[in-house]
Amino acid sequence: MPAYGSGQNPGSSGPVAAADRSRSAVDHRKHERYGMRFPVTVVFEDGTTLHGHSEDVSLTGFFVVCPGVMVAVDRHGQGTIQLGQDRHTFHCRVARQTPAGLALSITKDCAILGYAITNHLFNQLSSVRLGPGESGPARSFR
Questions:
Q1: Which pLDDT does position 109 carry in this prediction?
Q2: For residue 130, pLDDT beyond 70
Q3: Which value, in Å, is the radius of gyration of the alpha carbons in the chain?
Q4: pLDDT over 90 (residue 129)
Q5: CA nearest 64: which of 80, 48, 86?
C-alpha cells in the first residue's frame, strides 16, 4: 500500500488514473462542506472504538478529528453523534485516513442524519432573539 500523500491509487494505472491523481480533492466532492463541530463516537465491526469531533460536514459524510488513530480504509462501523441534547446513530465506512483523523462516508439513511444536523443548526439559529429593527450577526457555516 502506498504511503499517505504519495498520490498513488492502489490497483489503478493508465490515463484515467493519472488524470484522477492530478485533480484536487475538491474536484471529487459531490456536496458542499460545512464547518460544524460535534462529538462523534464510532464502534467498528471488531469492537474498536474511536472518539473525536466532526469537521468538514456534508450531506453524505464528515471528517472526524482523532489524531494518531489508525483505522483501515473501507472498515465499517456504527457511529453516534451528539447534537445538543439529542444523540443520533448512523452506519458508516472509513473513506480516507490522514494523520489528523478519518473521513467517514455515511452508508445508510444519510438523509435522516442530514435532517438531524440541519434541524440542530436551525434550532441554534432560532434561539437568537432580535429586537424590532435589529439584524443579527453575519454567520458563515463554511
A1: 81
A2: no
A3: 18
A4: no
A5: 80
User: How far out from the chain centre does Cα 72 lie?
Assistant: 16
Nearest to 60 by CA among 99, 33, 26: 33
Torsion of CA 88, 114, 24, 52, to 10 degrees: -20
Q: How big is the chain, counted in residues?
A: 142
| Residue with the three cell numbers 502506498 | 2
Residue type, 5: G
Number of domains making up the chain: 1
Q: Which residue has the cell 453523534?
A: 81
Provide the residue range defining the domain that includes 33.
28-126
In a domain, 132, yes or no: no
Residue found under cell 432560532:
126
Task: Give 101: exposed, middle or buried? Use CB within 10 Å, 0-12, 13-18, 19+.
Answer: buried
Cell numbers given for 43: 464502534
CA 42 distance to own-chain centroid:
12
pLDDT tens readout for residues 82-111? 888 888 889 999 999 999 999 999 998 888
Q: Is the pTM of this model over 0.70?
A: no
